[in-house]
């Protein structure tokens, strides 16, 4: 076990959205803060800082996690996907397009985290029921939309992803 000295900054290398990036982090630096302040990836939002609101959700090693509950140094060497990585060419992906069609965002603060959780969820459960989507969303706080457009967008994206898979 490596002991990290408090108050000193240590190199942390991550593969973020298919790019290898290195920055410096104190042992207590949260992954959210490292992504935003050190790597300048501002799509990941900081909400409650307790893992409750879901705004900071990113994918770590292919799994949706709350980046406000992870230390950056714990993730050294990990593969991370942030909301910026959902459409690397600047074109909205299926889920993002569904959010747009269904007006599933208003202020947008919660949107990045919901998109990341929904991406992970749909990969594991490509044919969810409305209740299952609502259950997944129970880990996110949205103060603007009332969740109905978000649920509709996720269900619509799931249908579209299933149809594309059948066509290929």
Keywords:
168 residues, Ubiquitin-like (UB roll), DNA polymerase, domain 1, five-stranded mixed sheet, 5 helices, 5 strands, 15% strand, globular
Describe the structure.
This protein is an alpha+beta fold and 168 residues long. The chain folds into two domains: 10-86, Beta-grasp domain (Ubiquitin-like (UB roll)); 94-167, Orthogonal Bundle (DNA polymerase, domain 1). It is built from five helices and five strands; from the N terminus they run E-E-H-E-E-E-H-H-H-H. The chain has helices spanning 31-38, 94-101, 111-124, 130-137, 148-167, and strands at 10-16, 19-25, 57-60, 63-66, 79-81. The protein has a five-stranded mixed beta sheet with strand order 2-1-5-3-4, covered by helices on one side. A hairpin with a 2-residue loop joins strand 3 (57-60) and strand 4. The protein is globular, with a radius of gyration of 17 Å. The relative contact order is 0.14. The model has no long low-confidence stretch (mean pLDDT 93).
């Amino acid at each position: 076990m490596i002991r990290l000295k408090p108050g000193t900054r240590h190199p942390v290398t991550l593969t973020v959205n298919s790019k290898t990036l290195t920055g410096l982090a104190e042992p207590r630096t949260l992954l959210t803060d490292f992504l935003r302040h050190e790597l300048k990836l501002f799509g990941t939002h900081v909400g409650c800082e307790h893992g409750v609101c879901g705004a900071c959700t990113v994918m770590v090693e292919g799994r949706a996690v709350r980046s406000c509950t992870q230390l950056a140094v714990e993730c050294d060497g990990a593969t991370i996907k942030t909301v910026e990585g959902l459409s690397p060419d600047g074109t909205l992906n299926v889920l993002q397009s569904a959010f747009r069609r269904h007006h599933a965002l208003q202020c947008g603060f919660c949107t990045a985290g919901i998109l990341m959780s929904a991406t992970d969820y749909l990969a594991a459960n490509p044919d969810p029921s409305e209740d299952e989507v609502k259950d997944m969303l129970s880990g996110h706080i949205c103060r603007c939309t009332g969740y109905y457009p978000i649920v509709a967008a996720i269900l619509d994206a799931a249908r579209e992803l299933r149809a594309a898979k059948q066509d290929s």
